[in-house]
Structures are given as structure tokens and as C-alpha cells.
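User: Predict the complex.
Assistant: Input components as received:
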Amino acid sequence: MPKIIACANQKGGVGKTTTASIISDGLSRMKIRTLMVDLDPQAHLSLSFGRKKAPGLFRLVCLDEPLDRVKENIKPYLDLISSDKQTEKVKRMITLSDYREAILADLLHDTSYDVIVLDLAPSLDILHINGLIASDWVLIPTRLDALALDGVKEIIGTMHEISQSSHAFSGYNILPTFFDRTTRETLLQFQELVQFFGHYVWAPIPQDTHVRESAAYGKTMWDYSPDSPAMVGYFEKNKRIGGYRNILDLVLEVVNDK
Ligand SMILES: Nc1ncnc2c1ncn2[C@@H]1O[C@H](COP(=O)(O)OP(=O)(O)O)[C@@H](O)[C@H]1O
Ligand SMILES: [Mg+2]
């Protein structure tokens, strides 16, 4: 069975799609068979790999087409279930069906991938719940602004409700993004997160204009700017802190159940 990972936060613009794409591409480069599922009608995950919006999720869930026919191959070891505005219809269909909260889990659990990465939309609808119920483990990217703690508490509250009624998660972690160590506000918010969630908070991803550029060029950071600050973090006493390369190592530990 694949390990299913969700990038989730009910807030938009916090780095969910960026994180999903960089992790997925990184896993595939290690020859780990990875499927990405774009659950956002805005389809930014599909676009960030230079693909067009397409009704992949709609065909899988609503038209019952087999996953093998619906998936798009992006590169060796990396496939994608695309999204577009028809994903809105998926929500309506799921709402009307029986077992409505576990439809995505049923479709994804018996596949031959090693890892499945879900990019959730910033919403709290039935598709969001389906994404969480399908996941073993959740990564919660968050900006370090005044509402960060509140947003993270919300999603963890939702996970708590789910785990009480129907589904056990193996865990979660919080990934601070857009880290700017020259700004007092960022540092204070980071400290507050750590005070509240302790070791669940991973080392932060620096704010880095290369990230926005890479998305615009339809490339992930592994191709566009593999050694820029968002990827390598920063060095303190010769030790690398944060950055997506570090995050990939931590995700690998989760995938390997360490
Ligand atoms: N560390 C970063 N530094 C600078 N820009 C970033 C960083 N992470 C993401 N971005 C940019 O911020 C925007 C929102 O990120 P995105 O991953 O799409 O967020 P979400 O999926 O949570 O809405 C995108 O344009 C993305 O390229
Ligand atoms: Mg997104």
C-alpha cells in the first residue's frame, strides 16, 4: 500500500502546492514511485509542472475511469492526477453518495505507488475531508504571520475530529514557510509556533523569489534553482537549517516509518 501524504492548510497562499511539488519531484528523483493528486479546482499543481488544467480527478471519481488511464506521466517515477474546474462537480457527487467521506481513500489505497502526495485546496469541504481521511500523515505548511497559529490549530482540530470518528493518522508536522529572519514578526511567530507545537514544527523554508519564478516557468525548484535558499536553507555553525532538501530527508523518514 502506498504511503499517502497530504499538504493541507485551510488558508491559501501558504506554500501547500509548492511543498507538494518539490517533495514529489524529490521523491521521484530517488526512484520512489510517486503519484501527485491535485485536489484544487485552481489546478496550480498541474500548472507548476507545465501541464494544462484537465479533469483528471473528475474522470477518476465521477466517470469511474481506471487510475491508469486517467493519470498523466510527468517524468520517470512521477505521475499526476490533474484538476480543473470540474473538480467542483466531484464535490457535489461525493456529497450525494454513500460512504461519502472515504471515496478518495478507497480509490487510492490499492494502487502500486510507493507514495501518493495530495495537494489540498484551501477549503473545508467534503473533498478536503476526503483528502484528510485518505492520508496517513499530514504536512501543514504555514506562513509566519499573525494568523498562522490560528490556521494550524484549525486544521489540527479538524484532524482530531476525524481521528475520533473514523480514521487514525500516523502523524503530522508543521512546516513554516516564507521565513524571513530579518523580520521580527517572522521570528516571533516562529517562536510562538514552537512554543505551542514543540518538535512537530520543522525547520522553516526561507522566503526566496526563485520559488515564484520557478512556478511561472513550469519547473520545480530541483530543475530551476536547486541550490537557492528555499532548497538549502541557511547555514549556522556549518549546519544546514531548513530548506526543502532538509524537508525531503524528513519526509523520507516518515515514508520509511522511522
Ligand atoms: N518560500 C517561498 N518564497 C517565496 N515565494 C514562495 C515560497 N513558497 C511559495 N511561494 C510562492 O507563493 C505563492 C503561493 O504558494 P503556493 O504554494 O501556491 O501556496 P498554496 O498552495 O498554499 O496556496 C506562489 O506564487 C509560490 O510560487
Ligand atoms: Mg495551492
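The chain has one domain: 3-255.
Let me know if you want any component modeled separately.
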